[in-house]
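subagent[fold] <- orchestrator: predict structure for attached chain, return tokens only, no commentary.
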Amino acid sequence: MKTEQGKTGKFIAPIKSQEAIKLLIADHRLVSKLFDEYEKASTKAMRKKLVAQICMELSIHAQVEEEIFYPAVKKALKDHELVPEATVEHASLKTLIAQIEGKEPDGEMYDAKVKVLCEYVKHHVKEEQNEMFPKAKATNLDMVELGEKITARKQELIAEKA
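subagent[fold] -> orchestrator:
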């Protein structure tokens, strides 16, 4: 696989296909790490850069879940609760993202929005990993095939944003 150069000039590592749930958990871990780095960031420039990456990662993650993973899980589980709730949670996350993405880190309200976004993400991740993912694994869904679809779509979205 070839690496691509993003608009920031840094190279973006290629995304390797793997099981869907493993891919989504890797995204969760990355975003958690980015939030931790934000907490430790000492300059506005560092915070702005981290928020830009957090927003991009969350936006792409939410989009692939909504387009690929959630419909497959909803159908396999005949679910009328987990997926709709997760979709509503995504809408709340997108609202907060819109309030901070591309904005200057200009004080306590900005930091408060990032903090609340972090808390929402932690809540959402906990529910997915403790409830949705185990139930999805117990179905006959082909997680490798779903992972390949997620990987391909993530690559498209990254290329669009680059």
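orchestrator: received. Logging for downstream: The chain has a mean pLDDT of 90. The longest strand covers residues 4-5.
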